[in-house]
Amino acid sequence: MTVSQEQAAAQPAPAVTPVLELRDVAVHFGGVKAVDGISLRLEPGLVYGIIGPNGSGKTTLIGAITRLTRLTRGELLFDGNSYLDRRASTLARLGVARTFQTVRLLPDLDVVQNIELGFDGRVQDGEKSNRGSWWRTNLGLGTPPEVAQAIARTGLEGFERFYPSELSYGTQRRVEIARAIAMNPRLLLLDEPTAGMNQAERAEISALIKDLRADGLCQLLVEHDVQMMIDTCDYVFAMNTGRLIAEGEPREVVQNPLVQEAYLGRKWREHAADH
Amino acid sequence: MIDFFNANQVLVQATLSGLVLALSIQVPLRMGVFSFAGAGSYGLGGYAAALLVIHLNLNALEAIGLTIVITAFVGLLLGLVISRLNGLYLAMATVAFDLIISVVAINGGTFTGESTGLYGVIVDFTTTTMFIMTVVAVLLVALSERGRTGRRTQAVRDDQQLAASAGVNVRRYRLMAFVVGGALGGLGGAMNVMVRTTIGPLDIGFGLVVLALTMIIVGGTMSWKGAVLGAIIFTWLPHFLDFIGQWQTLVYGVIVALAAIFLPRGIHGVIVDIIRWVQRRRRGTLDKPAPDPSGDPEPEQLLPPSGTSSISPSAPQQPIRGSVARSLLARGAKS
User: Fold this and answer.
1) Cα separation of B179 and B44, whole Å?
2) Looking at the partner chain, which of A166, A183, A198 has a beta carbon nearest the beta carbon of B302?
3) How far apart are CA B120 and CA A163, in angstroms?
4) What pairs with residue A247 in β-bridges?
5) CATH number for A12
6) Total tally of structural domains belonging to chain A
7) Is residue A13, in this structure, part of any structural domain at all?
8) Domain boundaries, chain B
């Protein structure tokens, strides 16, 4: 039994249905085990983080969750229902939104249009008017209020008619996040959302994540900035070589010797401990 | 004006059918589907319309409507078979489809008229009707470039993973590219045969792919406006180059080569770039520079700070895209 399986087994069965549940998920590329037997549960309204050194399988795991990467084995459940037979696009319409490790915006669309792309795949929450009128949606007449709201939340006012090539890397990141928010998701997967940002921008993104958490949105965050993970996440998973090596409260996980060793190597960890 | 159109009616008709042919290849390309099947559909549409008129005595509108349904359905079948292919492999498969249509036309016996083709496709179909039909087709294509469909089309073309993550059924859109390309090709071929009253194997085939691609490459691949520009230029250019006689083909070729080298997005792309440049200038000079919520004026500060994270083993090394544009904007605002 792996560490993750042991820890998963040790956890008491929670009463709430998890938004997302992974059971023994593995993604192998030939002989390379990018993800190897990951089991985890994400509950509504909490912010989860995944840390781990480069090549530990974090992004592959996000790809597997969003059905962009084929699973070798395992089970994926959204709201308690298996979605292994669903396409990535169907999953998005169910309410799973994501950002990518490297910014992926459409170069010929401006900021508003890029965010509207997310709005187009918006999850309905019972109010048909959310989709906007037929004319507005199909002829591009006017900006839907939900898109304007996503722009305001991510601090993109003033950038509406800019094209991605005219924006800094950090601002492009914010557009990606705004696009994901505009989808009105039930689960938001953020793959290194603050990469390329300065400290002030990182703090803003951290505040935005907490703001979304207050709205009850479950989020899974892949990030290298451990301080940000400590400040932002409720629960953190640590990965190395495709496996979970620790999970729990962010501070506890960061102080876990296995995690420190994964990042620094055994020699440096012992050296750091000595001093 | 009316005199001009009457005097150049054949060229006007060729422009309209050329435009619809160009759109039949441009629409799939705009969706990231490297398909030239529109040329085959054009040929198929021409023969289908001719046969429907000759054998079933259908009127022009009935024949065109039925032809569009036939070519769209054939496009769907073709898409179901080959839409999983990509790039050059897909292009070759669709060129093979075009060639198959030509081969069937030549070897179809009396049904297709073999190498002499079909004659006597006489229906009540005027240039005005052709113009109206073309405008309707262009309007529908133009609408597909706007709003939700336009955004999703671009997503499918530029980044299929992103499109899927935004809830777009990529396979359905790619199939739609074959269907729309087939319908447009069929419309172009049917209209052409009705104004010319004949069709033969020499009127279809690989030459149509070259013609359509030339129109699109020079006019612009990203919008219907590019197809319109290309169709007008390459239908009327030979007419205006008539005075140089045998050198016409050379000049024609040089124009295409120059456009491909220096205008990779075509004439329409250049116009779009100029409009965006003017918009940037306006923003930079009339308005305040782009507001930056972080308040960092120097692009260098956008780099991730070193040593600020407790663990940062892979600080991203991506270039700061757009930093030059932003500093130019800031400079423009100061001046």
Assistant:
1) 14
2) A198
3) 54
4) A237
5) 3.40.50.300
6) 1
7) yes
8) 8-204
Residues making up chain B, counted from first to last: 335
**Token output for B214:** 């030339």
In this complex, how many residue pairs, one in chain A and one in chain B, have their CB atoms less than 8 Å apart?
181
Q: How far apart (Å, rounded) are the C-alpha atoms in residues B231 and B216?
A: 8
* Position A266 confidence tier, pLDDT thresholds 50, 70, 90: low
pLDDT in tens, A193-239: 988 788 888 888 899 999 999 999 999 999 888 888 999 999 999 99
- Counting other chains too, the contacts that B60-64 makes at CB distance below 8 Å and 24 or more residues apart are B60/B123, B60/B124, B60/B125, B60/B129, B60/B194, B63/B123, B63/B190, B63/B194, B64/B133, B64/B187, B64/B190, B64/B191, B64/B194
Structural domain for A275, as ranges: 1-83+220-275
Give a yes or no: residue A12 inside a domain.
Answer: yes
* A178 interfacial to chain B (CB closer than 8 Å): no
Give the separation between CA B56 and CA B53, rounded to whole angstroms: 6
State the Cα–Cα distance between residues A231 and B287, nearest whole angstrom. 37
A20-29 and A32-42 strand pairing: antiparallel
Interface residue A2 vs chain B (CB under 8 A)? no
Mutate to test the interface with A, among B311, B314, B327 (most CBs of A within 10 A): B311
Low-confidence ranges of chain B (pLDDT < 70): 1, 284-335
A195/B318 Cβ within 8 A: yes
Joined together, the tokens standing for residue B74 give 């054939």
Q: Assess if residue A61 is contained within a domain.
A: yes
For residue B193 the two structure tokens come to 């045969």
Residue A273 included in any domain:
yes
